[in-house]
């Protein structure tokens, strides 16, 4: 028993030799599977554009089946498929325009963080926060406490002291 060649696209295996491999890789079935696989990664807009240049496949509409499958030169898309595709395109477009939409969870919203920081700063500046609260606000800040206690860090890696740098520390760079 020799080695077996497994084709991921077609999800099938056969005895691995030059002849079988060549025959398989040039086969219609393999080309179809491969195209279908890569079609998964095309964006919806490209698929829609291509589908709209095709005439509907009569065979597919009448019987719900067509031997040509995804390589048919006529369109197998129903009205609903097209609508789904259009919705998908809309979603992709929004994702592109607002790439960090996916990151917008409460913990990861930078805008939120910045506006909270702004408010805190404004409150400090206007003196509406008392001294102790200021201290607390500063030490309860963004630097996790265990980072403040790592010994012998180079200056460039030191976290800012509570309340931020008073003035830029002098460092001998060598
Ligand atoms: Zn194959
Ligand atoms: Zn067809």
Automatic annotation (TrEMBL):
Annotated region described as Disordered, given as residue ranges: 92-111, 121-174
Biological processes per GO annotation: mRNA processing; RNA splicing
Keyword Zinc applies: yes
Superkingdom per UniProt: Eukaryota
Cross-referenced InterPro entries: U1-CZ_Znf_C2H2, Znf-CCCH_4, Znf_C2H2_sf, Znf_CCCH, Znf_CCCH_sf
Zinc finger extent (C3H1-type): 51-79
Domain C3H1-type intervals: 51-79
Any one GO cellular component localisation term in the record: U12-type spliceosomal complex
The keyword Transferase belongs to this UniProt entry's keyword annotation: no
Keywords: Metal-binding, mRNA processing, mRNA splicing, Nucleus, Spliceosome, Zinc, Zinc-finger
UniProt GO molecular function: zinc ion binding
Subcellular location: Nucleus
Chief place of localization: nucleus
PANTHER family: NUCLEASE-RELATED, ZINC FINGER MATRIN-TYPE PROTEIN 5
Name by which UniProt lists this protein: Zinc finger matrin-type protein 5
Organism: Paramormyrops kingsleyae
